[in-house]
Structures are given as structure tokens and as C-alpha cells.
Amino acid sequence: MALGEFDLIARYFKRPVKRAALGVGDDCALLRPTPGQQLAVSTDLLVEGRHFLSTVAPERLGHKALAVNLSDLAASGASPLAFTLSLSMPRAEERFLAPFAQGLLALADAHGIELVGGDTTGGPVLCIGITVMGEVPPGHALLRSGARVGDEIWVSGHLGDARLALEVFRGSLSLTGDAFDHVRRAMECPTPRVELGLALRGIASSAIDISDGLLGDLGHVLRASGVGAELDLAAFPRSAILAAQSDDWQRTCLLTGGDDYELLFTAPAERHEEVLLSAASAFTPVHCVGRVVAPERGLVVTQRGTPVDLAGLSAFDHFKS
To answer: What are the binding positions for Mg(2+) 5 in this chain (predicted)?
Structure first.
């Protein structure tokens, strides 16, 4: 059954707010930031056929739509505060909206972030736009521009499984049973590393989330910081499922996969143990995969001491890929 705009907002997305001064229902939401905190704001737009497949379950899509935005807050070391949701869709149907809202709001509740407004409209394909707002103490935000020569380079979690799932959907690879279920979940239901981002404040020198592929996202940090990097591909964390693939597929998924939404960050080498303790406090595994070097060294990736040819490996580009 198709719903009208205000009916669907009232039925699925209007909730009483606890932290905001005013939420859904007026022309503007009213926020109540913690005194002395800076506001961290990020926006992501997900388009069907470009950022997600039409076969994804609505509850997973709701989860992912918010998760990719929370991942940006995590990369900034910001505590979630509020978010807005904009939906454009061909039809407003209960069978989609009910589970979508359930997945979205369950993750929101898990991170204490409130839905405070947005917009809905009809359109040719499903598009989901979310803007998140978080808080961070002045001078404590994690930035892309703080990496320094000698810093260690770290990543959280495991990399490459989401790309592996995409290649199965494309027909380039074959996985069945539990293996496919695992990588599909990695692609459709990522875990935003909010707790890790908070734990790394004051320890990490720079950070970014891995959304478009490690090479591309690390490149943003290197350019912003004016440095180079050396990476050891053998040190990259990967699942047993990815480790069972060919070296070429492992390299592709680990370096250019994207859609991981893990944190890539740098920290002074002398703070190695602090990084491990902070990650443990956030119940998140982290791995040191390289070091920051002088800018003239550029970006070098080795595997068991042998340089890896990076020709043909590139990050996701929303207008070219």
C-alpha cells in the first residue's frame, strides 16, 4: 500500500527526542549541543544501483545508510548527536519502509543518535541522504592532516570482504553457503567504529574511514599531511575467506575494495602500546600495516619484501567507477 508523505513520516520516523530540543515535525529541528563542544557534521548520499544493489534487505539498507555516516563521525573522533534523513523513492510502500526504519533506528539507538528531521519525495530510483551531527572537544578532532614521518599506520577490523561479495554478485568469483553469507553481511551491514574513534582521541595523529578503497583513502591522508607511506601487504588483516583467494584477488580487495568502513589511522611509534590498549577498550581489533615516510618516497607497498605493482589499482570514483 502506498503512503502519503506525512503519513509515512509519522508512522515510521517520528519519535520523541531526548537530547534535541525539538525533533521531527517542524520546519527546523532544534539541537542542544553540549556547552564547549564543537559540532562535527557529515553527509552521505546512497543511490540504488550505484552504492547498493536492489537485492539488499530493507533492514540492512537502513542499517548501512546510517552506518556509513556514523563511520565519518568515528574517523573524526566525534560522539554522535543527531541526524536527518531524506528519502526519494518511486513508491512509498510499507513492506519496504517498516524494515528499513527498523534497521535504521536500531543502529541509531545503539549509538545514542536521534533522528531530528529530513524530507521525503517521489523519484525514479531509491536515494537515501543522511546528514549526521556529532560533538568533539575543541582541538581533539581527528583530522587527515596530522600524519608525521615516523608514525605507524594502522587499520581496524578486516578488509576486503565487502569487495569480495561485490565480485560474487558480479559473477567474477564464486562463494557459497556460510562464506557468501559472511562477505555479504560485511558489504550490507558494516560496523561503524565509533567507540574506536573516541578511544583514539589524543593518541592518533590522523584518521580516515575506508569507504572508497585503502589506496585512495590513504592517499587523502598523505596529501593532506604532506607525507609518503610504506605498507606491508602481508600485515593487512583479512578473513580466512579472503585469504583463500588468489594473490591477485586479495591484493585487489585489500587495496581498492572500499565499502569496508574500517578506520585507517596513524599514531606515533612510541604510542604503539597505547593504541593497542585503546583498541581493546573499544573491543575492536587493530593491525599496524606500515609507516609514514618522507613525501619524496611516495607510496610503496611491499609483500614479503617484494614491491607490489600498483598499476591498474585505483580507488572507487563516484563518477568513473
So the answer is: 212
